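Much of what follows relies on a compact textual record of a protein's fold. A complete example follows; check for yourself that the lines match position by position.
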Amino acid sequence: MTQDPSVLEAAVALTRFGHGAGAGEIAGVSVDPRGWLLAQITPAGAPQPPGQFPGTAAQLVAFDAYRQGLRPDGSDPDADGSPEAQAAFERRREQRRALARQSAEAFLARAAHAATTPAPFAERWAAFWANQITVSATKFQSAVFIDSYEREAVRPHVFGPFEDLLIACESHPAMLLYLDQAQSVGPGSPAGRRREAGLNENLAREILELHTLGADGGYSQTDVTELARALTGWSIDGGPGARRRPPRRRGRATRPQTDGAIAGVSEGFLFRDAVHEPGDRRVLGRVYAQPGAAQGAAVLRDLARAPRTARRLCGRIAAHFVSDTPEPALIAALERAWTGSGGDLGAVARALIAAPEAWVPRADKVKTPYDFVVSAHRAVGTPPRRVQDLAPALEAMGQPAWRPPSPEGWPDTAADWAGPDALVKRLDWSREAAARMEAAGIEPVALARSALGPRLGARTLEAVTRAESRVEGLTLLLMSPEFQRR
């Protein structure tokens, strides 16, 4: 019997572009797989995970309260034995725990949303960009803001102009704290001349190397330094070095104000003119004479529009969605859409959907641990419900919540996720998940057909069918090549 091509395309659409199929989804999407994907591309961006979580403004207040009483370097002074000092120490420790719990619950909401959303392509597209311009909880001060970073800086902009996404991400407190930009002081600025303070190049370097042009993008160390000077003054409201509000003089606040000349900065961004390096900057051969915060923003917008940025990021998109070694024709098609639209990410997403290379049935990509867990939950129709179950599982499999190991983000190739130890960890989780599924009365063969549809191979079907128990059958399904790849 010949398989309906639209059913196979539906299975590919749900797995390659989304987080896998749930019950009945393959049949529903098969009516119009491409139209289903295209409908998820909206000017509003990617849908937000449900739940009431504090935004950046509220997080800044909580973070500022936590930092009160810390040493200038951000460390917690030891209690000296007095009741007052001990009480202050315990108060700060509980504040830190509360912020950590809040971050963990937000990640759980994100995973539950991915497991249940009717717009899984928009969700995967947002996750790609959050990882491309990444912030990590390896630093506590950035961990506080990661949820609001994704909600406010990433999701609303993922189908709009790339330059808007870039400005929103680089100006968010999570990024400014993660890459130490809030500590950067221009040596020739008023603040730099008064005290020993240095230029920090971390953000400038990662913008050039990871967020835009790439390591082979033709920039020099001088360009890194000049961009870092242009970005001096980009800071956060109430951030490091500003925990104590400036004094009032003649009844008027001396607190610096955000430069009104730049648009699209994130909530919580504050430009500090006193630490901005004065003068023109030359980056990649172009001179930027803009005053204040607008100088750094002008460089970022030019970097966003650069042909090398388009080429590199289109290659990253193709490698994430289709293959570790994508066809040059696919990259070229995405690049044409990027340049032809002025960097409109919605146009690039539509070009990805239109590309024939994206519909080859062969599944080349290995799921990350997060994708694997989410797709298992999506297959059975139940979202993850407890941080205590989700977080340890991802930690064991090598992808702890919110914690990519470096500014490069999570790796994205089979070599990174399919090693022997990684597969053992996945097997351990699969057995535990299979036991929970068995207790819920889930039947292995029915689940295999529902989750994989025409992607289900004869060998896997036979193994699941002949399993000695439902737990064994479900484990075999979860560990099958068809389920592990997308």
